[in-house]
Amino acid sequence: MPATVVVGTQWGDEGKGKLTDLLAREMEMVIRYQGGHNAGHTLVVDGETFALQLVPSGILYPHITPVIGNGVVVDPTVLLKEVDALEASGVNTSKLKVSGNAHLIMPYHHELDQLAERRLGKNKLGTTKRGIGPAYADKSSRVGLRVQDLLDAKIFRQKLEVVLKEKNQILAKVYNRLPLDMEDICARYLDDLAPRIAPMVADTVGMVHEALENGSNVLLEGAQATFLDLDHGTYPFVTSSNPVAGGACTGAGIGPRYLDRVIGIAKAYVTRVGSGPFPTELTDEIGDALVDIGHEYGTNSGRRRRPGWFDAVMMRQAVRLNSLSEVAITKLDVLDTFDKVKVCVAYEANGERFTHPPYHQSVLHQVTPIYEELPGWQTDLSECRSVDDLPVAAREYIGFLAEQIGVPVRLVGVGPGRDQFVTFAS
Asked: What are 223-277's pLDDT values in tens digits?
């Protein structure tokens, strides 16, 4: 049975959690394939809000086996805190599995992430300072500790002793900070965390292949988004992993022939957190309205997101990079009160017109967005449940987006609730 991938197509915060939750009804397994607890998914179910960071969105369905794949970096303290919060809300987390090959976020990763960002000053990257980048860096440098190391105290200690010696030298000589104590870390990770994590640890590659071979429906859930991708995003203002659909293969341990359906998620406008280029950014009262109406503040960080009009140029690139089969548009209702809405259909720079993002970052920083203006609908969409319920202007806006990006729009979100969406015919 082929697998389905859900991937963000902008700079994150597109509503992947809600879509994953909707799709999970038809799935048997949901796998988070990359990122860490720098990604927040907010779900609203029966009036109750769930803010997930590491646990896959499918956790809210009892029939789902939720899996944290090998491509994720895991802070075990955060994971257990999230599990405890879910259990306290009546959600059964006993089926949650974590790849033994996933890498651990360690205390020195947190420390170095915060210190490095502070040292960059005005050139900071805008990271969440949660140790994600340093953990992935150690993974690439082959000095990382993995979840499976929690199950072998001797190996954990041996690995930690080697890497902590180097990290403490950096902390002391570069940042003038006190060294971290090895015994304190071992006591926390081996004595407190390992016994609770151990029942979750599994051969997740074997699990997903067994599920696929048995004909089960499998959903692969990405964190962050296409233009935060380490290779294809607006580098260096990116994350430290590969959120694009191709990253689902390495992050979950399956080959590309298993991928059949790739669903791209995009807001009806665009937001970005942190630094980096943003061609359609709005710094006026319209941008303020998008932030206020859309409650555009980070699920994890609480930071105000930068708002802008929908960018069809970057979406066309996202279609290419992910081989999107379809798109879901979220938060269409945020535009309900606008008398006019705009869509960026091209960029211009130095007399040249671009229908896809220029490859050179310096050019991207200089582009001027070219807009098409469409009439707004000035109608409350929150009760719409079918295409016929949508006002003509809203339908025309969605049709225009699909025409511009060359991929059909199959679902439109009209509110935060689980049932607040409209499905377009295949």
From this structure: 899 999 999 999 999 999 999 999 999 999 999 999 999 999 999 999 999 889 9
Strands 409-413 and 421-423: antiparallel
What does DSSP say about strands 97-99 and 65-68: parallel, antiparallel, or unpaired? Answer: parallel
Q: Is the dihedral of CA 177, 179, 184, 189 positive or negative?
A: positive
Residues 389-422: pLDDT tens digits? 999 999 999 999 999 999 999 999 999 888 899 9
Structure-block tokens of residue 314: 């970057």
Angle at the Cα of 129 from the Cα atoms of 124 and 133, rounded to 5 degrees: 85
- Could you confirm whether 339 is annotated as catalytic? no
The token duo for 289 is 């309205």
What is the DSSP code (8-state) at residue 35?
Answer: B
Provide the whole-model pTM.
0.91
Instruction: Yes or no: say if 245 and 33 are a contact pair by the CB < 8 Å rule.
Output: no
- Report whether 409 contacts 424 (CB < 8 A): yes
Does the annotation mark 13 as catalytic?
A: yes
Cis ω for the linkage preceding 358 (within 30 of 0): no
73 near 136, Cβ under 8 Å?
yes
Angle, alpha carbons 49-194-28 (nearest 5°): 50
Q: How far apart are CA 290 and CA 296, in angstroms?
A: 8
Choose the catalytic residue: 21, 37, 41, 149.
41
User: Exactly one of 13, 21, 138, 229 is catalytic; which is it?
Assistant: 13
